Amino acid sequence: MKILMLGDYSNLHACLAKELRRRGHDVTVVSDKGVYMQTDADIELRRHPGVIGSLRYLYRVLAMLPAWRGYDAVQLINPQFLDLKPGKLKMIYDILKKNNRSVFLTLCGNDHFFVKDCVDTDLFRFSEFRIGKEKTPFVKCDPIKEKGWLIPAHASYTKHLYDTIDGAMSVLPEYDMSGRRHMDPDKLIFTNLPIEVQNLEYSEMDREGPIRILIGMRGDMEIQKGTARMLELCRELETEMPGKLEVKAVRNLSLADYLEELKRSHIVIDQLYSYSPATNALQTMALGRVTASGGQQEYYDYIREDSRPIFCLSPLEDEAVIKERLRSLTADKEGLRRMAEKGRRLVERHNDVRDIAALFERHWQRLIKGSAYGDE
């Protein structure tokens, strides 16, 4: 198959593309390379600040459109697959639909319907936008980050995409839970996130010296993901446990450098407002380290997993309770080792890119026939 992947988040499409090429497919990835993450892409497409940067970005997109035709499957990372406003995105999406055999959507990250479900429904007990009915610190400090997704232009464009897309793949349970409310469920398959497990070598964590906690920070998302809150809590613990605990915060590292930091750690703090472990957490577990992240019952139910190797974080839990649970975790090195082993096995069972790529393949093959580009 000839496949075009437009956009990427945390190496998701780039990871899939490598495996799909090993399986004989012709794959092209177009992305901003995760900016500072410097993930793989065949074509780097990044919007720079300012009017000139915006004009140059739009010119490049329009110049590449003639080459974005004749593909068996175009895979969009999100309805916001390019850094453009909804009207222009709709125009480009319609061109892609007309000139390719099929267009699919990776349900990943925020879009109009997902944010609406976080804000206006009882689907989720918490999210980065709400804790129960209360606005989160992220929304209180920057309300436009919520309101922007809910404007009529985003609603109209996203509904058009959901109604006309040939198929979709949800990579986390929360995206699947929301997506099934707004599109034909027959179009949607839950896949889980892909990880190159075979290239992430498991190693025993260091048993000597203090426990090392790593917190990966991204400057524009520290409040949104709850990492700023968790860093403050971990710093308090570090002060209370001199010589027994070391806390390190890293910001805006490349993917390669971040993986090296993971290997030097015992516990890695991922995010506070998630139901499920995302890419950073899964890479942490693959390397044999313990992740503190989303590990809600809904996640384990979705993947039908009895093991519980994630130190579950939740904004519904009092900070003092989280702190005491962390204190107990850091005091039990043998318990950490057992959690690390279980985490590696969980990722092997549910996130191996070879298995996820096969799910993508089968979904394409099932739904491509009958698309606007024609049958075979």
What does this entry look like structurally?
This protein has 376 residues and is α/β, with parallel strands linked by helices. It has 2 domains: 2-194 and 353-367, 3-Layer(aba) Sandwich (Rossmann fold), CATH 3.40.50; 197-350, 3-Layer(aba) Sandwich (Rossmann fold). The protein is built from 15 helices and 14 strands. The strands form 3 sheets. A 7-stranded parallel sheet has the order 3-2-1-4-5-8-9, sandwiched between helices. Strands 11-10-12-13-14 form a 5-stranded parallel sheet, with helices on both faces. The protein has a two-stranded antiparallel sheet with strand order 6-7. Strand 12 (267-269), helix 11 (279-286) and strand 13 form a beta-alpha-beta unit. Helix 1 packs across helix 15 (353-367) and helix 11 packs across helix 14. The chain is globular and about 60 Å long. The protein starts with a strand and ends in a 9-residue tail after the last helix.
CATH homology-level superfamily of the largest domain = Glycogen Phosphorylase B
Shape: globular
- Helix-strand makeup class: alpha/beta
So, CATH architecture of the largest domain?
3-Layer(aba) Sandwich
Strand content: 5-15%
The oligomeric state is single chain
The portion of residues assigned to helices is 40-55%
